[in-house]
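Lecture notes, unit on protein representations.

Consider one protein chain, 386 amino acids long.
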Amino acid sequence: MSHEIPLSRPDITEQEIEAVSAVLRSGRLSIGPVLERFEQAVAAYTGNEYGVGCNSGTSGLHMAMTALGVGPGDEVVTTPFSFIASANPILMTGAKPVFVDICPRTLNMDPAKMEQAITPRTKAVIAVETFGNTAYMDQYAHIAARHEVTVVEDCCEALGCTLKGKQAGSFGRLGVFGFYPNKQITTGEGGMIVTRDRRLADLCRSLRSQGRPVGTTASPGTGNWLSHERLGYNFRMSEVNAAIGVVQMERLAGIIAARQRVAEMYIRRLMHIDDLILPTVEEGCTTSWFVFVVRLAPSYAREDRDRIIAGLRRHDVGAADYFPCIHLQPFYRERFGFGPGDFPIAESVSARTIALPFHNDLTERDIDVVARTLELMIKRENLQRH
């Protein structure tokens, strides 16, 4: 009898549950010592001085843009092949996203095209590590430095990934992680800015808490709690969320090892399926496997891919298209006039991607079910096409 295999599932143990219970018993649910521990753990792991916890990776990118002074009239270079949250914070500041096409192998921005997109109006580059791939991050940093432009590293999918021994989150002036339940580690909802720049860290701490001065007491009605130095937001991470994160960071090595095991099982099982392109890890890179996304061969159209995904779901195998191009999302098309053909490589890749179930607890039997079902759906599609 078949059983449902979900697309993702968080890895939560009794340790996380006990840590949350301890916070609930403490009476301190916000702006407390557990968040500070989590911030220190992520900063130290990624080779940074400071961590600033927040309620999502999106909020982290928004604050990063704001802290850098990005605003109306500015341009920010980024990729169209990503989750929409990597581009939306540019619009939130009033700036304009400038998309550049991707490399078909790494799925990250083509460095040469990125450099060509830089103009006198470029204020920053949001460099996304797509699916946790750190390829070109050092090149982006060098190009940006040459043009005196700041790199913000969107490493929301890349905790634990490295390039030439350097951790994701250490290549930009600021890095931003996300901890949604499908990420390598989760806090339920949450994000983190990491940086070696104390001024930017302090500014982000103020921005996340209604623009209050840095070091403000957590007790309303005392000290300078009702003093606000700048326009800020309510982007704080609670002690409850941070407690989950502290335990997840302590377990990170084991979590990454489990994800590596699942990825290796997939590769062994899928490598012989015709018309399937498997994810690759570039030389000098390591990955902690955020997702497992395969691609159909270029001869397949979007409609073919969509029927295969629908077939997988009918057979209780979680699957999704990862990612629809940002520039073809309705809001971006309407506002900026983007259309099909603007970024052909990203569009071609996007039309053929299939995200397969991926989480730490998948068994060899699960992988076999996914592989057999996928192979069957591809064969069925080929019969219908021909």
